[in-house]
Specification:
By secondary structure, this protein is of the alpha/beta class. It has helices at residues 31-42, 56-68, 109-116, 135-148, 167-177, 188-193, 204-212, 252-266, 275-290, 300-309; strands at 6-8, 13-18, 24-29, 46-48, 52-53, 71-72, 76-77, 82-89, 92-98, 123-127, 152-156, 183-187, 218-222, 228-232, 235-239. Strands 6-4-1-10-11-12-13-14-15 form a 9-stranded mixed β-sheet, sandwiched between helices.
């Protein structure tokens, strides 16, 4: 079976995780970057498009992508690597970002389109900090062009409200981008911030119906420790989170969505028939990631070994 290639555009940064003694421990991260790694570990053919800095952090980020099997297609940038300061409270992460004059924003829409010219349309994934104004204006233009050319668009909303100067403007920007997605992932917190009624897990089904009305064909609604709903053209499965000893949750959602999208690139014709197994695999991969510090998505063999013990 032919594998559909996955192209990823989005931030690669260093998650500087606050330690009990006040030190900051830098770990590689960034939602699309994590997602690319997770998808490659699952077996997808993944291409990373953003520029990486020519600084030492950029070297580390590039080396990790290559080690995971991701093809790095962009040139190096003279701008520094972006930083996120991560505070952990009972394993849950909150973020502060340093995003001005940094490498992963060092691109033009015309450059991305030129890099994809002549490529057979596949899956194009973006989201997270790329949806923050004014960056979203470039994304709107880019996704419009790619959709018109036959690309399938994947978006992980992954809102970071503290990064927005104007939260209402940020929400409007995300709402403008959402109808361009064929495939969408959103967390409970994302959807509540955008104004959806989602205070109980059973309300995820009604939210999914509203999202499908936007033209979204495949979507995931993640509910933290409560579980997740996966919907492929109305075929739905809800599953709870596997029991693990959580070290932290950094990159769990990225690992989850990377595994979902990777499965779809590997078996594009039967996604409606495999909703439950796709969700089970993705939940297991995310659970394994939660037992590790920072985002360290598991390989497919690790995920299968975990499931065999469940």
């Amino acid at each position: 079976m032919m594998t559909v290639p996955l192209y990823v555009l989005g931030e690669a940064l260093m998650d500087c995780i606050s330690q009990d003694d006040g030190r900051l421990l830098p770990l590689m991260g960034g939602s699309p970057y994590n997602m690319a790694r997770a998808a490659a570990q699952r077996g997808a053919q993944v291409h990373y498009l953003n520029a990486l800095s020519s600084d030492r952090f950029g070297d580390q980020l590039s080396a990790q992508l290559c080690a995971d099997g991701v093809q790095v297609q962009s040139q190096r940038s003279a701008y520094p690597t972006s930083l996120a300061v991560v505070q952990l409270t009972q394993g849950q992460a909150s973020y502060g970002f340093y995003r001005e004059g940094i490498a992963d924003r060092d691109y033009q829409v015309s450059e991305v389109l030129a890099a994809l010219r002549g490529v057979e349309p596949g899956i194009f994934h973006t989201g997270s900090l790329m949806l923050v104004p004014p960056e979203h204006e470039k994304i709107l233009q880019l996704l419009g062009e790619l959709r018109a050319s036959g690309w399938t668009i994947s978006i992980d909303i992954n809102l970071r409200p503290k990064l927005a100067k104007d939260l209402s403007q940020y929400c409007r920007a995300v709402q403008a981008v959402m109808p361009l997605a064929h495939w969408l992932k959103a967390s409970e917190e994302d959807l509540q911030t955008l104004g959806y009624e989602l205070k109980r897990p059973d309300q995820a089904y009604a939210v999914a119906q509203k999202l499908r009305a936007l033209g979204i064909e495949r979507l995931a609604v993640t509910l933290g420790a409560e579980g997740a709903l996966l919907d492929v053209q109305g075929n739905q499965s809800f599953q709870t989170v596997p029991a693990v000893a959580v070290l932290d949750t950094v990159g769990a959602g990225d690992t989850f969505w990377g595994n979902c999208v990777a499965e779809w690139t590997l078996s594009a014709t039967n996604a409606k028939d495999t909703v439950s197994s796709t969700l089970r695999n993705a939940m297991a991969a995310a659970a394994i990631n939660c037992t590790r510090q920072g985002c360290q998505p598991p390989s497919w063999s690790e995920t299968q070994a975990f499931l065999s013990r469940a």
